[in-house]
Design brief:
alpha+beta; Nucleotidyltransferase, domain 5; five-stranded mixed β-sheet
Length: about 500
């Protein structure tokens, strides 16, 4: 038996996963860790935690599977995007990594917009947001000049683990798309953006397509992890791109929907497309020569968690949602806006707020529950609508994953609101599975990503839209879309109190 290894460097744990040549998961292990918030809105992490977690989880899966290290043919990497890792000329970490969810860089985002204007969106496919890497580096330049003066290399989190595994500096094109330095059309670093922001190109690693081999496990890393020296390590992908590979969303028409705390709509494109107002993220895909558009709503499953914890903490989710099954589509005129932590897509507005609108004396808890489920579904549809507005073909199937996808009623509501079939697949390990699959392509187990997905990933469940419900949700969604513009001035005023 031969295997490939996927490693996922997330915000809270490093996961390792072994799959065999038939795509079966042979072993999974994770090493947990925390992150620091030294000041309000800050989020930092010691890169040593990622490597320590990788060592522990790799050794654990090799032991679980009883695998000969020589039978592990390749390693793929994925993980949290946008983080800033700074190294000196000796490869030593200069300061804790600044993570994707750090919010300190508002002034730096404004400065990027002033320097580049419309060219930023035209080149990178994205607006300057606090989560991205570029404003973090500008913050270090402004506030920690001693650190900035010693920088020799800038990496993303998973690429620090790559450096520890191989001694090589490299990144994947999907992850690089989330830095604000990549020309997404050309799939290469943008000299224009780097020059405008006064960032030396020598600080950035070479970029590679997802299955490309970027280095090999060093003798030192082999001793630490138990892997065979010389094992190829492929580029992999940022967590969302690897997640899409892991569910087989690698061609136009098949969209990935992740229903976790946030909601992510991920659609592959054969050509580079950029939403004119930057309301969608435009990134390179981990599948070579392809791109993807991504819409992110900040409180999807998070809205349901807040609702349950606040209004029905005595009930488990299944019992709470069962009540809503008898409420008709549209919740009898009740709407819920899921902007509990502001919003990103389609309204990049940190001041947006959640709201129930249309309450009457007739409404009971079951109505409120269904309104929450429908409000999240409407918010997800916003991303689909934006994608079609810029010419992406409509989805023929949506492959859904994440904790919220386990509930039958919520899946049905989403299928009815979107008017498209939802599918669940046989793989449930997400990004780590996608990274292992990319490694298999890189070492020749499969000729390309499409073939690997066709061979390994099968649809296990389908939720078909119900025509009557689809028809009822059309006017309900139209009313939902009217609410944010009407309430936006009030949201801004409420933020002052």
């Amino acid at each position: 038996m031969t295997y490939t290894l996927g490693i996922d460097i997330s915000t809270t744990a490093t996961k390792a996963l072994l799959i065999d040549e038939e795509g079966r998961v042979a072993a999974v292990a994770a090493a947990d860790y925390g992150f620091e918030t030294p000041h309000p809105l800050w989020s930092e992490q010691d890169p040593a935690l990622w490597w320590q977690g990788a060592v522990r989880s790799i050794r654990a899966v090799v032991a679980q599977a009883g695998a000969d290290p020589a039978s592990i043919l390749g390693v793929g990497l994925t993980g949290q995007m946008h983080g800033l890792v700074l190294l000196d000329a000796d490869g030593a970490v200069l300061r804790p990594a600044i993570l994707w969810n750090d919010q300190r860089t508002g002034a730096e985002c404004d400065a990027i917009d002033e320097r580049l204007g419309a060219r930023l969106l035209a080149i990178t496919g994205n607006r300057a947001l606090t989560g991205f890497t570029a404003p973090k580096l500008l913050w270090v330049r402004a506030h920690e000049p001693d650190v900035y003066g010693r920088i020799a290399q800038v990496l993303l989190p998973k690429d620090y683990a790559r450096f520890k595994l191989t001694g090589a500096y490299a990144t994947d094109k999907a992850g690089a798309s989330g830095t604000l330095w990549l020309d997404v059309r050309r799939r290469a670093w943008s000299a224009e953006v780097l020059d405008a922001l006064e960032v030396p190109a020598s600080w950035l690693p070479p970029t590679y397509e997802g299955p490309d081999v970027t280095g090999r496990v060093s003798d030192e890393a082999a001793e630490a992890t138990g892997l065979r020296p010389g094992t190829p390590v492929v580029a992999g992908g940022g967590d969302q791109a690897a997640q899409a590979v892991g569910v087989g969303a690698v061609g136009e028409g098949v969209t990935a929907l992740t229903l976790g705390t946030s909601g992510v709509v991920f659609a592959t494109s054969e050509t580079p497309r950029i939403e004119p107002e930057g309301r969608l993220h435009a990134f390179c895909h981990a599948a070579p020569g392809r791109w993807h558009l991504m819409g992110v709503m900040l409180s999807a499953g998070g809205s349901l968690r807040w609702y349950r914890d606040t209004l029905a903490p005595e009930l488990d989710y299944d019992a709470l949602l069962a009540e809503a099954a008898d409420v008709p589509p549209g919740s009898e005129g009740l709407r819920f806006l899921p902007y509990l932590t502001g919003e990103r897509t389609p309204h990049p507005d940190p001041l947006a707020r959640g709201a129930f609108v249309g309450l009457t004396i007739r409404h009971r808890r079951a109505h409120l529950t269904r309104a929450v489920l429908e409000g999240v579904a409407f918010g997800l549809r916003d991303s689909f609508e934006l994608m079609q507005e810029i010419g992406l073909p409509p989805a023929t199937q949506v492959r859904i994953s994440g904790g919220g996808a386990r509930n039958t009623l919520w899946r049905q509501i989403i299928a009815d609101v979107l008017g498209v079939e939802l599918a669940t697949v046989n793989t449930t390990e997400g990004a780590a599975y996608g990274a292992a699959l990319l490694a298999g392509v890189g070492v020749g187990l499969w000729p390309d990503v499409d073939t690997a997905c066709e061979h390994l990933i099968q649809v296990r469940g389908r939720t078909t839209p119900q025509p009557d419900a689809v028809a009822r949700y059309e006017p309900a969604y139209a009313l939902y879309r009217d609410l944010y513009p009407a309430l936006k001035p009030s949201f801004a005023g409420l933020a002052q109190h």
